[in-house]
Amino acid sequence: MNDNQTGLAIQVQHSRDLRALDFVLATPIPPDRHPAAVYLARLAAGSRRTMAGALDVIAGLLTSYRCNKETLNWGALRYQHTAAIRALLADLYAPATANKMLAALRGVLREAWRLGYMEAEEFHRAADIPSIKGTSIPRGRAVSADEMRLLFAACHRDNTSAGRRDSALIAVLYGCGLRRSEVVALDLSDYDAETGALRVHSGKGNRGRVSYAAADGSRPAIAGWLATRSKAPGPLFCPINKGGKVTLRRITDQAVRNILNKRAAEAGVAQFSPHDLRRTMIGDLLDAGADISTVQRLAGHSNVTTTARYDRRGEAAKRKAAGLLSVPFDK
Q1: Catalytic-residue membership of 207
Q2: Looking at 69, 165, 180, 204, which residue is catalytic?
Q3: Which residue is catalytic, options 106, 125, 250, 275?
Q4: Nearest alpha carbon to residue 168 among 217, 119, 202, 96
């Protein structure tokens, strides 16, 4: 915890509104009756990790890091406490991150009410905290077309099962715009080789969707991998042992990142995250003139405003406008 977080946590702990209430659970609560556990259980795996971390941060800020999400008495929170937490998050995090954490807080409060730890009026007041307004510079980066060619070339030079798997993995991450957690959850039965359809069952918020592998790039890459993998049922993407043998079990989220890091180094490409391939796909489709609502559905976004954050056309217009200026600098 840095000095800023420490100071803010102490500020909350000793504020006039919070001093009268002990937030520590007197006795442990079983998972099926615990507001945080019940809330997290209904989320998809990827969201569960993110929101669990958010709840740990909130619990820590409320108690000078004496509590975490399991030991905090969520049913004891009232409006003055959630308002103070909102102010803290606004100081500590970018608006998008802070609002995601507030969403986790509201979700736990709702479960505390449903489980009988809060009265309806107490819940509605505590959860009635507005989102934090503001914008921030988008995280991550776009992977250029030249970099994509270098990445696939690096995979092609590796004429092994791993090279063919990694070509298909990159093709799906970029060509279908899948999240890392969605890729590792794919089974062979989720892919229709004839149409290129990929059924995504583990989308964010448990929203399933169908994405499509392009016939002129992604499908041939997947076909090359399947010729090595075999048609046996199981995960679409699998580990490969040192002897080059495919093991029919699911790869991990971290394995995906490791694969991309390895291929980026071989290709001489700057490091990028799995999500950078997804944001690149969304941006490339919008640049190509695809309808934003269609891109929203392909990406699995619940709100079109989320998709709009990936729209790079405004930045291109700004760069073009900046080029119209003549700066009279004399070397």
Answers
A1: no
A2: 204
A3: 275
A4: 217
Question: CA 96 to CA 100: how far, in whole Å?
Answer: 6
Contact 62, 126 (CB under 8 A): no
> What number of other Cβ atoms are within 10 A of residue 232's Cβ?
9
Q: At which residue do the structure tokens 């060619």 appear?
A: 149
Give residue-wise pLDDT tens across range 145-180.
999 999 999 999 999 999 999 999 999 999 999 999
Structure-block tokens of residue 299: 């990406």
**Would you state the structure tokens that stand for residue 256, as one six-digit string?**
């995906």
> Pairing relation of β-strands 197-200 and 191-192?
antiparallel
> pTM score, two decimals?
0.67
Query: Is 310 marked active-site?
Result: yes
Structure tokens at 249: 């079990």
- Residue 216 CA, chain-centre distance (Å), reads 28
SS3 label, residue 326: coil
- Could you confirm whether 275 is annotated as catalytic? yes
Measure the CA–CA gap between 154 and 295, rounded to whole angstroms.
29
Cα 138 from chain centroid? Answer: 13
